Amino acid sequence: MDRQKIAVFVVFALNGGVYGSWATRVPALADQVHAGPGAIGLALLGASVGMVVSTTFSARLMTWIGARGVMIIAGAASAVIPILLGVVGTVPLVWLVLFALGIGVGLVDVAMNMGAVLVERRTERAIMPVFHAGFSLGGLVGSGGSAFAAAHGLDLAPHLAIVAAVELAILAAVVRWVPGESQPQSTESAPAGGAVPFRRIALWLLAGVALCSAIAEGATADWSAMLLVKVHGMTEGAAALAFSAFSVTMIAARLGGAWLQRIFGPTKTLALGAAVAGAGLLAAALVPVAWVAYPGFALAGLGLAGSFPIALSLAGEAGKRSDGSGGEREIAFVTGIAYTGFLAGPPAIGAIAELTSLSVSFVVIGLVGACIAPAALLAHRARLRERALHLPVG
């Protein structure tokens, strides 16, 4: 039994569980603060802004206290902060609580991905997508628990307090096995090329892969039901099943992601996934037969499953030092770019839909997903060039 691997997988699941637990109680939160869709939508941006802000200092924090230290402190905070959502009474306070939560979740996100990279280095196996499947599974469990709580009339505060207690207990049980102790940063082990990842062409291209993946995934989550109801005439219940197909195939593909990478390698896996995702999204948008949307979104989940995890894995390897440490800044950099996609993508797609149509907006999403392929191929070539120059690339 690989305790480190299990511990990191559990941390991914806990972070997904935090999100799934509060995000599906938004209707109750809106009623609590007497907010309409527009006001609560602005409040929800607080979490996204907090996540983007967290990436500006997460790497430095990890060099001080290690990835494990960040996971302990930020993980505990992320479990407890949502309880405040059950007691706030105004929209600005909701924004502030979600901003703080976004910082905590964002810090855990970067740290747990660093922990996953450390496990990959130790085992010499590409298993990052499997860890991200843990996040997705945690989200499903969290949202399922929220549905149960809402169905039985449990108020927000006690529900989220129960979630916090469970999360803290599980975190305390596994944290001893999480890798990522703090390490002194010596000049001998510093990456070639000096201080910043911003000058690395390969990292910018990997960030582009993560950005396209985030835009396509976030926009699909937010707009798929609207497309199926408004364009294909489905009921809301039937439309929800399409996103379920997207989510289930994404989890399945992530669980099998290590096998795919061993067969095709990371670059071909990214390119193949981009082609599958683009085809699925375009089919859902353009084929005038309602049921085609189901396999279309299922293909999209299948194709997008590996993009973000593989980009992070390659980014972590790009920062690997001669002593086996490093990668914190590179992961934080790529994650920060991806978060801007989650933040700006859905509103941008909404604006395109307003100016044109929902079908056109999903054509754009499909093309964005397909752009992962050339970005991955160019990143591979850039990594080879940097390797020839003896830069620390994976």
Automatic annotation (TrEMBL):
SUPFAM superfamilies attached to this UniProt entry: MFS general substrate transporter
Keyword Chloroplast belongs to the record: no
Gene Ontology terms, MF aspect: transmembrane transporter activity
Keyword Transmembrane helix applies: yes
Topological type in the membrane: Multi-pass membrane protein
Entry's transmembrane regions: 39-57, 69-88, 94-118, 130-150, 156-178, 201-219, 239-257, 269-291, 297-319, 331-352, 358-379
Protein name per Swiss-Prot or TrEMBL: Fucose permease
Organism this protein belongs to: Amycolatopsis xylanica
Source lineage: Bacteria, Bacillati, Actinomycetota, Actinomycetes, Pseudonocardiales
